Amino acid sequence: MTAAQELPNPAFSPRRVGSMALRYLYLLRGSWPRILELAYWPTVQMVLWGFITQFLAANSSYIAQAFGILLSGVLLWDVLFRGQLGVTISFLEELWSRNLGHLFVSPLRPLEMVCAMLFMSLVRTLIGFVPASLLAIMFFDYSMYGMGLPLVGFFFTVIITGWAVGLAIAGILLRQGLGAESLAWLVVFAIAPISGIYYPISVLPDALQVLAWCLPSAYAFEGMRAVLVDGVFRADLMWLGLGLNLIYLAAGTAVFMICFRLARQRGQLLQMGE
């Protein structure tokens, strides 16, 4: 009988369970995005629905119009989220396949990759948005397309915001590696409670209103409500949102380019998927 056969090997070992649990605790401790994620989702959901409930309780007359406004808000918010996710998923696919280093031994420039990711984000978003908006007509007899041309402006306002956030996240992934990939799903939801998706910005506390008006998404959702509730197109909100987006998109691109340059200088591109 060998030494290995002499060792006890119970069908169930609390020691083995403890060893694996300890491994997972070490993995959790070593990744601050994973720790943040545990408290993040309950907090965001609580704040978001708290403001929705507070607003509806104080504006009972709004409930009669709430169906179309809430449905439009959900679809427009999904454009922002899918716009961001379209950028980060395209980048993550290169990390998962360990292909980033191979791409950049070719003549590909970082800015060219950025443009390709933005294009794919637009394609992914349209694939999701168009069927959902058509099904809303079929199932609920509600069409977002009734907003007319302003809808195009709202669409590009929120998707560009998503692009800016997505490029910044891609830059963070270059610095932190795949341990930070959960940021691709959680960062954009931090701005959901202060974007005014389902309620006016005026519902927020004064300090949060100041922060909200720094976000291009807030102008898009306020403009959407102006069209749906008052039948008025607020061109001022549209242009302010698009103007802020130019700043945010430039900042997101700068974050990505700086992080890419640092990763290349440190030789991280070839190890990025490991």
Order of helices and strands: HHHHHHHHHHH
What is the 3D form? globular
- What characterizes the major β-sheet? none
User: What is the radius of gyration?
Assistant: 23 Å
- Please state the average pLDDT score: 81
Beta percentage is under 5%
Detail the poorly predicted runs: none
Helix content: over 70%
Number of helices: 11
* Separation of the first and last Cα atoms: 41 Å
- What's the total count of β strands? 0
Structural class per helix/strand content? mainly alpha
Number of domains: 1
Question: What structural keywords apply?
Answer:
single chain, 274 residues, mainly alpha, globular, 73% helix
Describe the structure.
α4 packs antiparallel against α6, α4 (63-96) runs antiparallel to α10 and α7 runs antiparallel to α10 (216-230). It is built from eleven helices and no strands. The chain has one domain (31-271). The protein is globular. The protein has helices spanning 3-6, 14-29, 32-58, 63-96, 100-103, 110-140, 150-176, 183-186, 206-212, 216-230, 235-265. It has 274 residues and is mainly alpha-helical. The longest helix is centred in the first third of the chain and has 34 residues, at 63-96.
